[in-house]
Amino acid sequence: IQIRRLRSLFNNSLTWSFFFNRRFSSQPARLDGKIALITGAASGIGKATAEKFISNGAKVVIADIKEKLGQDTAKQLGPNATFIHCDVTKESNISDAVDFTISLHKKLDIMYNNAGIACNTPPSISDLDLAVFDKVMNVNVRGVLAGVKHASRVMIPQRSGSILCTASVTGLMGGLAQHTYSVSKVAVIGIVKSLASELCRYGIRVNCISPFPIPTPFVIEEMVQLFPRVEEAKLEKMIFDLSALEGTVCETNDIANAALFLASDDAKYVSGHNLVVDGAFTCFKSLNFPLPDQNTI
Ligand code: NAD
Questions:
Q1: Of the residues 176, 216, 251, which should be mutated to test ligand 1's pocket, given the most ligand atoms within 8 Å of the CB?
Q2: Would the CB of 146 count as within 6 Å of ligand 1?
Q3: 40 CA to centre of ligand 1 in angstroms
Q4: For this structure, is 181 an active site residue?
Q5: Residue 21 reports pLDDT greater than 70
Q6: Which InterPro entries match (predicted)?
Q7: What ipTM is given for this predicted complex?
Q8: Cα 145 to ligand 1 centre (Å)
Q9: Rounded to two decimals, what is the model's pTM?
Q10: Edge to edge, what strands does the sheet with 81-85 contain?
């Protein structure tokens, strides 16, 4: 009778689909039980990464300077997301965010130093505004360095951890952004190299991701200043049209996937690396003249 019951249970298509989904189709939780702190996670890349981490089993603390947006994002992402106000230019705020994460979750496995700002400085070095330079470096470089410092403070005794930072393709090639922003992203890649060399001794990995342009709020705000009369949807299309990889565009989810890989044990021996997510954009420079027709050579 038991066997007949089991047989009828498995003849039921719903039972099969439940069994099949549980066994084969559900996404493996690659960050099961992990605790992450992400700066600049109220929107854009940080928010997409927080969502990705949570759907892979992590609990995430969202640290951002935007109080209301950060609270709304945490609410939207559900009970495994918590918001803390944090201005990365204030070392005490970063220190507090790390301590808050420890008091809430008892450990810190992943620190993602993602907060960053753009700037609309004049394109020529001869007109460089050093006050703007200081402001951008304060967020994009000093904020990242302080994040690594305070994450290390708790990860070194743990003898484990994954530290991520957001660099940019503008840190790999000149001419893609204003000097100030480019220089700040070159520095982020440098921070990763330098700190990975020390922190490897404690089992801590340090990596960064260099995204291709994505129309997140900070990029759109900058574009609006450059093209004040163009609608937002057109500005978004202008960014997406820059894509080098045929048939697709770079989206926040692509960066979240890169972050998931680097944060997870899939990257357990990857450290000091800059994962470039640019669809081959920085691999080539198009020739400025049309290629000769092969038949005429
Ligand atoms: P975004 O504007 O959506 O997100 C940036 C977040 O950082 C915002 O929520 C903002 O409130 C927060 N922030 C700004 N200053 C802060 C501070 N002092 N303290 C704490 N939080 C602060 O933009 P995004 O594109 O998601 O940017 C995230 C990171 O990605 C930045 O470091 C940026 O330089 C980098 N990046 C973006 C692109 C792109 O095209 N979008 C490309 C390469 C690199």
A1: 216
A2: no
A3: 6
A4: yes
A5: no
A6: NAD(P)-bd_dom_sf, Sc_DH/Rdtase_CS, SDR_fam
A7: 0.99
A8: 16
A9: 0.91
A10: 81-85, 59-64, 35-39, 110-113, 161-166, 204-211, 274-277
